[in-house]
Amino acid sequence: xxxxxxxxxxxxxxxxxxxxxxxxxxxxxxxxxxxxxxxxxxxxxxxxxxxxxxxxxxxxxxxxxxxxxxxxxxxxxxxxxxxxxxxxxxxxxxxxxxxxxxxxxxxxxxxxxxxxxxxxxxxxxxxxxxxxxxxxxxxxxxxxxxxxxxxxxxxxxxxxxxxxxxxxxxxxxxxxxxxxxxxxxxxxxxxxxxxxxxxxxxxxxxxxxxxxxxxxxxxxxxxxxxxxxxxxxxxxxxxxxxxxxxxxxxxxxxxxxxxxxxxxxxxxxxxxxxxxxxxxxxx
Length: 283
Known about the structure:
Blueprint: E1 2-3, H1 31-44, E2 49-53, E3 56-60, E4 71-74, H2 83-96, E5 103-105, H3 111-119, E6 123-134, H4 152-163, H5 170-179, E7 184-191, E8 195-205, E9 208-216, H6 225-239, E10 244-250, H7 254-263, E11 266-275
Parallel strand pairs: 9-10
Antiparallel strand pairs: 1-2, 2-3, 3-4, 5-11, 6-10, 6-11, 7-8, 8-9
Helix pairs in contact: 4-5
């Protein structure tokens, strides 16, 4: 049965790594930390529609194509009942939004669901590393100070340009940013002659500082602008009382991974997206 819920609460269950290629937390990682970061991530990047099928959070957003905003997110490793029927229900829901069916598999996903998707031939793509560190231990006190911009429209225009996105996404991105409830710092690193060269979004959520939308313009990479944006966001959050910084980065983005490792971030867990094979009924 579908039901709406407003929040996700962490508990104290522990988890371990599964064998095989599935993305999992390390044996010493605590699923309570994973749950806390997952919940903070959902608050920081709010979907327009959120429904639950058991503990599977179904997130859909007509105005923006982001996978995090349009995916099924299983949130309890023990919730393994009626998998085939629930996948089918999710497929119908995504079809009604004209969105491709995508599952986001974190360490909170039940192993039986992964096995079911494996048997059905679902692809894995965009493996992502979640990293975290105490802000006091991070190397963020070098470089210029940058204050967050107050104009959401200015930030959105800069983000679209820096990411090389379609201008048609402006309305959807503006709606998402306007829906974020925790305090938000919008950072734009600009060149006086060529305009915005890097952007970052920092969300201050209790003692956490989450970094999102990190990007450097293609022609200005490897020049320190990305580091400046990250440092500016974390200094802003530290001033507001945040104690821990965290972020998500695709494992294939080796330059970004090395940047964050160099700053002092360390991996906490990974997640991966899954989609039906082309031509299947669920695709």
